[in-house]
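User: Once you have settled down, look closely at the record that follows, taking as long as you need, and be ready to discuss the fold:
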Amino acid sequence: MLKKHHVTLPSIPGLKRLLSYQKGWLRGDIVAGVTVAAYLIPQCMAYGELAGVQPVVGLWAILPPMIIYTLLGSSPQLSVGPESTTAVMTAAAIAPLVASHGGNYASLASLLALMVGIVCIIGYIARLGFLADLLSKPILIGYMAGVAIIMITGQLGKIGGIGLDANTVFGEVSEFFSKLNQIHQPTLILGAIVLAFLFVIQRRFPNAPGPLLAVLLATASVALFNLDQQGVAVVGEIPAGLPHFSLPKLSIPEISTLVASAIGIAIVGYSDNVLTARAFATRNHYKIDANQELLALGTSNLGNGLMQGFPISSSGSRTAIADSLGSKSQVFSLVALVVVLLVLLFLRPLLAQFPKAALGAIVIYAATKLIEIPEFIRLAKFRRSELFLALTTTVGVLLTDILVGVGVAVGLSVIELFARVARPHDAVLGEVPGLPGLHDIEDWEGAKTIPGLVIYRYDAPLCFANVENFKRRALEAIEAETTPVEWFVLNTEAIAEVDITAIDTLGELHGELTSRGITFAMTRVKRDLYYQLQRSHLLQKIGAEHIYLTLHTAIAAFQERDRSSSDEKIS
């Protein structure tokens, strides 16, 4: 009889929350939504320019994600939409392609968003949400610092009112200083004032919409002092209406060129998305679904790809603002959506007068928040190797293409993980006077092994990557004993499983010890490991009578090795 196969449909957690909405949440969600909208309008315009598209596209790119994430996202507080990292990665991916082969920049940005969405949805189907864990904290700290520096150098031309041809960090800095005599003074002064204003507002009034106030004041200055007539660049005329459905031009050469970029942006965007969501979930005592976040982010990017947008992720700053004002659900995003729509429909003339220097200052301000100096100091105090990973990632991002930097970051994370598995901690266990139980003899003064018995613990699963290291260190533990060793007991509490290479090496170790008259035994063997030993026929070599449930039964068997202790052994 055929079994029925049940297809698991994507869940809609946001809809479930909306249907169970509590009236007590409404005030906090409305206040948070209006404030976040005031913050994101100038911010997203700046990120649109950072991505290389028209500033208004930054506002267009917030609209589909707000609706889609409200329905599909697992976090009730996360603010999705344009953000600095994916914006700068978008520019890094598309600008060289347009420069060398031509093409419509805006259409390529939408195509890239479409591809990022497809990558995320494939990850959701394959349940690859766990891959975000490959980016360790030091890697993320270093990576974000590198991205921040790229963001800052990318705005030097805008706040200086000069054109920069270089497209690398060091090239932009060098060219900027070589053109100091060409700096447009009014533009530089305006940018510096806006940047200083942002820092002061953030320090004195952390919940105020600083970017909005800064841009409004800068816009008023342009109108009052006719700065646009003095050469200060402004956003300019904004197209009427809202974004519309538009399928990006699909070109095989362009798609093949952008595949690596789409994967890199998906990895970084998703990592930022899920880490931010986790941080606020922990703070406010709820849970998120990491795999569901892949679906939500993927469909949000798909929406942007079909609605003239560009790749997006989540914004930690907007999420923090909403949280501080009492947001309880994604209703705050819907409120912000309504405000943005009203601005796009009725306040376009005001947006057209936004000075680009002010938008550049907002990007620089946002970038400074990504450089976490206290975290670098904490890494240095905790472990130098963690600091090395962070600094290496920063340098890798600065010296290579930013997408290569993503590969460097992931590669370093994998290498770090591999190193921990390949060279884990180990211990020879012994007795400590006045302290019950068995302990690592290296950790306690006066600790001694039981004469004739070596109890050895290897703190990682055994596999091809570490099994030779395990064998060498196990033999060294035997050689270090001052009295002849009669029994070697492997404590397998950290060895959940083994591969065939480990099985063969364990067989070799058993044979070598047997030839030297040393009994090989194992203790604290988990059921899965026991079955693996059984299927590989290694259990028959070791002998089921030498597999013990606990350390104490193994020690008792050693001490009473001339007697039968079958009642305490696994048969």
Notes: The first strand starts at residue 80 and ends at 81.
